[in-house]
Amino acid sequence: MLTDDMTRLSDEILTMRKARGSLVNELQHGAKARKHTVTKLCAHMGRSRAMMAKRTKNERVAFLNNLKRSVAGQRRDMRNDLSGARNAWAGKRS
Q1: Residues whose CB falls within 8 Å of the CB of residue 93, separated by 6 or more in sequence, listed in order
Q2: pLDDT digits over 26-41, tens only?
Q3: pLDDT for 48-94, tens place per residue?
Q4: Cβ distance 55 to 65 under 8 Å?
Q5: Cα atoms in the 13 Å half-sphere on the side-chain side of 13
Q6: Neighbouring residues of 87: CB distance < 8 A, sequence distance ≥ 6
Q7: Inter-CA distances, 48 with 38, 42, 56, Å
Q8: Which residues contact 84 (CB under 8 A, 6 or more apart)?
Q9: CA pair distance 20, 62, nearest whole angstrom
Q10: How far is CA 9 from the centre of its chain?
Q11: Angle at 88 (CA atoms; ends 85, 94), nearest 5 degrees
């Protein structure tokens, strides 16, 4: 009777050790898979961030170039208007 209980207990201990070993292996495999997934995600986010930075820089440069052209045109128009006003006040014909 006692030997049967001891045998059963020993078998249960061995079964639990195997289960614990397989659980540890599954956890290690899962951790490696998550590490790989996170590495890929970080690389993707880095590429996306670099592309976004490049795109927004190009958009800012285009906006500033357009703004410079617009301001230059407005300054030219203002200069011409002032010149015309001076000439009109001086009695000169343009």
Answers
A1: 87
A2: 999 999 999 999 999 9
A3: 999 999 999 999 999 999 999 999 999 999 999 999 999 989 887 65
A4: no
A5: 6
A6: 93, 94
A7: 15, 10, 12
A8: 94
A9: 62
A10: 56
A11: 95
What mean pLDDT do residues 5-20 have? 94
**Segment holding 86, helix H or strand E:** helix 2-90
For tokens 């001891």, the residue is 6
Task: Identify the band that residue 5 occupies on the pLDDT scale cut at 50, 70 and 90.
Answer: confident
Q: Distance between CA atoms of 15 and 60, rounded to whole angstroms?
A: 66
CB-based burial label for 8 (10 Å; 0-12, 13-18, 19+) = exposed
User: Alpha-carbon distance 94 to 88, whole Å?
Assistant: 8
Radius of gyration of the chain (CA): 40
